[in-house]
Amino acid sequence: MTDESQGMIAFLGVAPDPRLLDDDLENLPGPEQRREAPVSTQQHDRLVAAGSVLTGVSLIGGVALLLYGAWRLLFEGGGALDAVVAAVGLLLAATHWGWVHVAEYVGLTIDGRQAHEIETQREQWLATIEPYPRFSVGTSVGDDGSTHVRRFLHRPVLTDRKTFTFVRESGVEHIHEADAPAEVIAEDVETMRRQARLQTDRMHELWDAASTAYAAALLSAHDDQERLAAQRAAAVALSEHINASLEEAPLVE
After folding, report:
1. Rounded Cα gap, residues 74 and 72, in angstroms
2. Could you report the per-residue pLDDT of 196-239, keeping only the tens digit for each?
3. What percent of the chain has pLDDT over 90?
4. What is the pTM of this model?
5. Quick one: DSSP state of residue 10?
6. How far apart are the first and last CA of the chain?
7. Which residues contact residue 141 at a Cβ distance below 8 angstroms, ignoring those fewer than 6 apart?
8. Which residues pair with 15 in a beta bridge?
9. Angle at CA of residue 126, ends 122 and 132, nearest 5°
């Protein structure tokens, strides 16, 4: 654990990589993976449907008004009111497709606003990811019916873009034969999960100690020398936290 915790210093001030939103998301423990709900198109679809209805109503109603007004004008000696009715009918019939375009434009505007909100939420979630190692436990069944209980390390790594992402590495693996009692397997899984959770919590505590000291020292940093001093302050805080943790009880509950 010491090597992993000491390596945290390299991640101070480093931002999470956007690939954690997509390709590298699987490298985080399952409970920490953020799954976005699909963008709802119900409002868009309803608006387009309403636009289609209005298009049909405008066309039918416009033609009916045009025919009525024209008939009154041509055969019954209609007046100004009949001319207005015919003109309104002509306008409605000529512009009936406009309702579809208006509905589509409004729908696209709503979709764009919703997509922007989702993207903002994704970016906010990405900013909350902290670069400390995590541990998780997973199970699988072999071809022979045996149960494999494996611990995974979710390790932060630096990228060429000077950001950080995670890689998932297999660790300790326990194999239970097909005829192993279910309670034995369940107990083993629960024990490994408790240990993984405790180790993750310990690494989180170490990261908090280092990052808090670094942030406090960085507030007054104005040049590279002072930034190095901030990193040293973080390293000292991390070392002190590690030394204190060595005096604590082993990782058991």
Report:
1. 6
2. 999 999 999 888 888 887 777 666 555 555 566 656 666 666 66
3. 32
4. 0.67
5. G
6. 18
7. 147, 148
8. 163
9. 155
